[in-house]
Predict the structure.
Amino acid sequence: MPDGVANKSETEQVVLDFIHAAHGQHMNIDAMTALMAEDFAWQLHVPLSPVVVGRDAARTELEKHNSLSTGMIDGSEIRAIVSSGDTVVVERIDVNAMNGVTVKFFVTAIFEVRDGVITHWREYWDTSHVARQLGIEPAHMFDPLAGNP
């Protein structure tokens, strides 16, 4: 991750630490879950994916992701970060490798932070753009996460 992102608040720093833990060949799930509230809620893709509720459920889901994909690899970047109160919005370019295919996509993520931990994480990105890069139909984008081949 580039070091050029200015840290403006403690809330933004929690989110930056969380995102940085997702960088690398494998996400650092221990570091990520340490920054989650017990009642953490995560929606990988709004509106298509289900909401994962609870730190333990999020850990299980992140472990699944680690088995299917790299973390954010070279070329990933944070383009902008803005916050208001407990809400942090991050614009990113993510680069991941899945099944030997490198994919690049644009993400807007919304985080809510309370008492120094993340309570909510929602992401918005174009599934069709990613599916095309993987050579699959967009309707099947989340099949591997659901255990479907």
In short: The mean pLDDT is 91. Residues 55-68 form the longest helix (14 residues). Strands lie at 36-43, 51-53, 77-84, 87-98, 101-114, 117-125. The CA atoms of residues 95 and 104 lie 4 Å apart.
